[in-house]
Amino acid sequence: MKNKIRVGIVGCGRILPMHAVSAVTLEQSELVAVCDIKWDRAQAAAEKYGAKPYADYKEMIEKENLAAIHVCLPHYLHPVVSKYALSHGVNVLSEKPMAINYADGEECCRVAEENGKLYGVIFQCRYNDSSKLVKSALDSGKLGKIITARSTLTWTRSDDYYSQSDWKGTWDKEGGGVIIDQAIHSMDLVNWFINSEIESVSCSIANRGHKIVRVEDSAEGLITYKNGAKYGFYCMNNYGCDEPIEIRLFCEKGKVVMTYDDAYIDYNDGTHEEAHLKKPNVEYEGGKDYWGFQHIRQINQFYNAVLGKEPLEISGREALKIQKLICEIYKNGFENASREFLEKKEGKNL
Questions:
Q1: How many CA atoms, within 13 angstroms, populate the side-chain half-sphere of residue 146?
Q2: What phi-psi label fits residue 243: left (phi over 0), alpha (psi between -120 and 50 degrees) or beta?
Q3: Most CB contacts within 10 A, which of 36, 144, 225, 350?
């Protein structure tokens, strides 16, 4: 294919294969550079994927004439690198979350718009076949309005898991725990399905099972929307394994039970629809099952948007919707949190 877009990746950690394999597989792109401050990781990634290694993302942007970069860094660095790239004429696809706080996410959107560049944020679970079926049934009116929704996530993240990272499980670098890192995807799906502005958030957050981190490992709450829908959520990472997430929707014309892999819709008229996982014909080489398999679908869509073939689907403005919800959950959660949790958050009783 002529006129392939030149792509660089900033961050060569665990999520790298989801982006690098997609970039070298898709016909629209050429992965020309990778960057990591840990030079051995940059070199290893460069050798594996046929790219040039860098230790400085600014140098990479200056020298490589990139059309787009993928930002695959610790959460607090997402807006820092995104804003720099956008202001230097490079389109950006950032891993979730777009930022730790709402203001930084909004600022990234403003910089993208001022510079006429595309700014996308990864929420690959929207591209699951289960998610697409349910969204289609809602948008077409077949399910009617959502009356109530719920999501549950019970995964495992041990103290040992957190001890292996210099940023996971920190308020200043990750921005939180189970909400912003694990449950954000299922929350984004429900928020996307309901498709309304938030009216109120009432929730609780706590650290119930971890000794070496201060962030929340458990959360539950109720979100009320301006269209009348109510969404209850529960998430925790103190379970013994990563169970499939579950989302249930009670709608005017039917019910939905879904995971990332499967969706079942039972309509009030007795009809039924379902969808099941179709894995793309690509191996992510070390990717985790709980990340899903649809990064390549979203990355393909982003590249097509960069080439002007179609509008960008999950833009920064679109990602601000879930960013707002996550930030509201933390705000209300802190207001309702126990003294013990707040002291732990500040490091007073570690």
A1: 30
A2: beta
A3: 36
CA distance 284 to 263: 24
Produce one character per residue of 6-36: b if its CB has 16 or more CB atoms within 10 Å, e if not: bbbbbbbeebbbbbbbbbbbbebbbbbbbbb
**3-state SS track over the chain:** CCCCEEEEEECCCCCHHHHHHHHHHCCCEEEEEEECCCHHHHHHHHHHHCCEEECCHHHHHHHHCCCEEEECCCHHHHHHHHHHHHHCCCEEEECCCCCCCHHHHHHHHHHHHHHCCCEEECCHHHHCHHHHHHHHHHHCCCCCCEEEEEEEEECECCHHHHHCCCCCCCCCCCCCCHHHHHHHHHHHHHHHHHCCCEEEEEEEEECCCCCCCCCCCEEEEEEEECCCCEEEEEEECECCCCCCCEEEEEECCEEEEECCCEEEEEECCCCEEEEECCCCCCCCCCCCHHHCCCHHHHHHHHHHHHCCCCCCCCEHHHHHHHHHHHHHHHHHHHHHCCHHHHHHHCCCCC
Residues of the chain with pLDDT under 70: 1-2, 286-292, 348-350
Q: With beta carbons less than 8 A apart as the criterion, state whether 11 and 72 touch.
A: yes
Cβ pair 337, 167 in contact under 8 A: no
Task: Name the pairing type of β-strands 218-225 and 230-236.
Answer: antiparallel
Q: pLDDT digits over 231-268, tens only?
A: 999 999 999 999 999 999 999 999 999 999 999 999 99
Residue keyed to tokens 């940059």:
42
